[in-house]
Amino acid sequence: MTFELGTGKAVLTSEGRMAPKAGRATGTRSWAFTERVTTIEREALLGPSPAPSPQPPKLGVAVDGTDVLVRPGAAPYWIRHAPDDFTLDGNRNVETLAGTQVPYGGTLLELLASGGQVTKSATAGTGWTYTVRTPAPAALALFPKDLRDLLHRGTDEAAAPLPVDLTLRADGQGRLTRVSANLGALKAREWGSLRSLKSIRAELTVSRYGAPAPKLPPPARQLTAHKAVREIDELKPGACFDPHTGTSSDRLVVSRPCHSAHGARILAQPELNTTYPGARKARRQAAAACDQAVPVSPAAWRAESAERDTHWFTWPTDKWDWGEHGAAHATCYVLTR
Hints:
There is one protein chain. About 15% of the residues lie in helices and about 30% in strands. By secondary structure, the protein is of the alpha+beta class. It starts with a strand and ends with a strand.
């Protein structure tokens, strides 16, 4: 899937194997950017995280019935999300990785049952070419929620949306071999970070019919999301975590034992106040609170920092969360690798 942006291109490559009857799939999703794609555009496509960097450009994916497993970047573990876990903030983006028509979601195969008009034409040699005209709102389902929020269905949203045409090619046995589409009917919202978007194109190739069903990651390498994935301010000073969850959330982290490899450690959680002061003042309060709290945190924790005398911080950015459980607090932490 290629995003044509104002001055560059972003390409999402999804590949893998699936067994539709078994409801199982494994694969990867990888982003590649040309140099002129801006930092803001990269973060919008990759998704934010509590770390200074966005989510990793590569995500391992496995689907096991209604469960979805993700492997952020080169993490030594997979995070298993059950349907009930999708209510956690950010995990709704993981849900789109499980398809509605096929096990592996987010591909053009998801649009084949959209109820659009189908036309057929013969091709040279054996096989057929089909054209499926589907409404643009159906195409929005290809994207996780955070990206879907930055797009709309084209024209005036109260009017009839522009259609999306899919070109399907089938071999002599009636099996799909290629699907392509111009998703230009989807436009970026003017206020969003993808407002320079010019077009989106997608192409899918299907091959190796009859290959063995994919094997899921071994249980020993799996973490359950309802135990391992936490909002960062649920953890206590001294706790360790990995900042990348693959969920496109700047509040969620993977809780990790400090005696194992970990990407960050919490140094302090200084109290702020109970009244939300606005976005800018909230950030300044959090920064000042961490600047005071970090120097008096245990030296052994601070010594883990990958960058000497450098710390990071986060705070509730939504006024509805600011004083939900009494006084709000900032979370100050160091990155360890």
